[in-house]
């Protein structure tokens, strides 16, 4: 009478065969597993409102802080009646605790000029936005909610947020 072959060597041989022959695979995280771009901002001590609503994807290199945030299309809106902001469909830069540096893809209209916002630094309860040649500080509570593309905080004729004095801190009032 022939003895049956033990099960363990058969399973081991089958597993090794699959490892050698089967194509490699990766485990992809689902969207539910990843934090949103907005919660990621909060983890670096920034309010969600520095990004408009509508980020569809993002990536972050955790070792360097290099990030990209993507919208379906470019995004423009006015704030406080005197600022026009423009976000390209992809913005990028470096993020660390209280700092966004080497930003690309975000512009602000000051008087008749479009200037790139290149850096945002949180200093206590203020955010300092730099356009390279000058900077402006804003209270952090102005950024607790995200504006909407096209209408900012005044969508459908409803003010979503109270406006401040309408000052333009990028322009000196000497």
TrEMBL record:
Protein name: Uncharacterized protein
Signal peptide residues on this chain, from the entry's feature table: 1-28
Domain of life the protein comes from: Eukaryota
Alphabetical UniProt keywords: Signal
Pfam assignment, any one: DUF538
PANTHER family recorded: F22D16.19 PROTEIN (PTHR31676:SF156), T31J12.3 PROTEIN-RELATED (PTHR31676)
Gene3D superfamilies: At5g01610-like (2.30.240.10)
């Amino acid at each position: 009478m022939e003895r049956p072959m033990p099960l363990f060597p058969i399973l081991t041989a089958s597993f090794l065969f699959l490892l050698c022959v089967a194509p490699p695979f990766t485990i992809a995280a689902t969207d539910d597993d990843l934090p949103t771009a907005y919660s990621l901002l909060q983890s670096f001590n920034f309010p969600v409102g520095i990004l408009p609503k509508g980020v569809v994807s993002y990536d972050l290199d955790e070792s360097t802080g290099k990030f990209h945030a993507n919208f379906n299309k470019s995004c423009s809106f006015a704030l406080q009646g005197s600022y026009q902001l423009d976000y390209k469909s992809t913005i990028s830069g470096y993020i660390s605790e209280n700092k966004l540096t080497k930003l690309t893809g975000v512009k602000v209209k000051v008087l008749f000029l479009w200037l790139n916002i290149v850096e945002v630094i949180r200093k206590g309860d203020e955010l300092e936005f730099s356009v390279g040649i000058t900077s402006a500080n804003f209270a952090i509570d102005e950024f607790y909610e995200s504006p909407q593309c096209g209408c900012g905080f005044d969508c459908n004729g409803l003010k979503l947020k109270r406006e401040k004095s309408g000052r333009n801190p990028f322009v000196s009032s000497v």
